[in-house]
Each structure stands twice: as structure tokens, then as C-alpha cells.
Design brief:
Order of helices and strands: EHEHHEHHEHHEH
Strand order of the largest sheet: 2-3-1-4-5
Shape: globular
Helix content: 40-55%
Number of helices: 8
Radius of gyration: 15 Å
Structural class: alpha/beta
Distance between the termini: 11 Å
Length: about 160
């Protein structure tokens, strides 16, 4: 069973889709947000985008999760190719592929979702920096793209059909 990374910018639905998908396939859901340091949370909460150096220990933690847990569905922004490559390093340990599923949502809907969100440390104005950081798939890199403006059940059916 591949390790699955549900990726995209804040507000795209990674947690909702990830938990639902994990339930559907009998997997374990892990949210990348759980593994940010207090410093990173405070920095984002203050409206400061994270740097690559800020993200490095976090990415190492997420790589370990992919190495150590079976049937894992991990929610992680995975905005840059280098971040996705770091997570793919887990394939050397597990021999299982890491499948990236990018949840695509128009910016206007992302802003609506972030505005409606309660008790989350990520302020909506950081969405712009995430959209600017988001790198498309590199040549040869496979990322399943899914429109996440559809009902979650439809999204899950689409993901499972793309993976089979």
C-alpha cells in the first residue's frame, strides 16, 4: 500500500479529505500541522511565512512518519518540489511509493474557507505567500490533481479510482 500525501495550500481541504480517505482505506491519518514546532506556529500566527530553514525539521518529522507508519495518509502542504523530494526519501526505507494528491481549489473559495475557519493558527493573509511558493510538478514527477470543490465523497471516489 502506498503512503499517501494529501497536499495543497491552506484551506484546500487536506484534513477533511485525508481523514475521510484514511477511514475509507483503513489507513492512519496524520496531519502535518500537528508536527510544527511551537516556534513555527507562533511565526505563522504572527503572520510571518516560514522559510525553508524553518520547515526543514518539520519535513524530517514528516519523512519519519512516512517511514514508520503503514497505510498512512499524511496531510502536508508539500508546496515545493524540494519538500516533496524530502518526503520521497522515505521510499528508500519502506520500498513503498509515496503518492501525492494535490487538492486544487480556486483562490476565492480558499479565502472563504479560511475566513470561516475557527481556532487555527494560520492567518488567511498568508495564503498569498503559499500560492506564490506552490511549485507545479517537475518533469517526471507524478502528482494526482483533484478538484476539491466537489462533495468529499466524490473527491474520495476520484482519488481511489486514480490510484487503482
Amino acid at each position: 500500500m502506498p503512503r499517501i500525501v494529501i497536499m495543497g495550500v491552506s484551506g484546500c481541504g487536506k484534513t477533511t479529505v485525508g481523514t475521510t480517505l484514511a477511514d475509507k482505506i483503513g489507513g492512519q491519518f496524520q496531519d502535518g500541522d500537528w508536527f510544527h514546532s511551537q516556534e513555527n506556529r507562533a511565526k505563522m500566527g504572527a503572520g510571518t511565512p516560514l522559510t525553508d530553514a524553518d520547515r526543514e525539521p518539520w519535513l524530517q518529522s514528516l519523512k519519519r512518519i512516512l517511514e514508520e507508519k503503514e497505510n498512512v495518509v499524511l496531510a502536508c502542504s508539500a508546496l515545493k518540489y524540494s519538500y516533496r523530494q524530502k518526503l520521497r526519501e522515505s521510499e528508500q526505507t519502506t520500498r513503498d511509493k509515496v503518492v501525492f494528491v494535490h487538492l486544487e481549489v480556486p483562490e476565492s473559495i480558499l479565502l472563504e474557507r479560511l475566513t470561516a475557519r475557527q481556532a487555527h493558527y494560520f492567518p488567511q493573509h498568508l495564503l498569498t505567500s503559499q500560492l506564490q511558493c506552490l511549485e507545479p510538478a517537475n518533469e517526471g514527477e507524478v502528482i494526482l490533481k483533484v478538484d476539491n470543490t466537489q462533495p468529499v465523497e466524490t473527491v474520495i471516489q476520484l482519488i481511489t479510482s486514480l490510484m487503482s
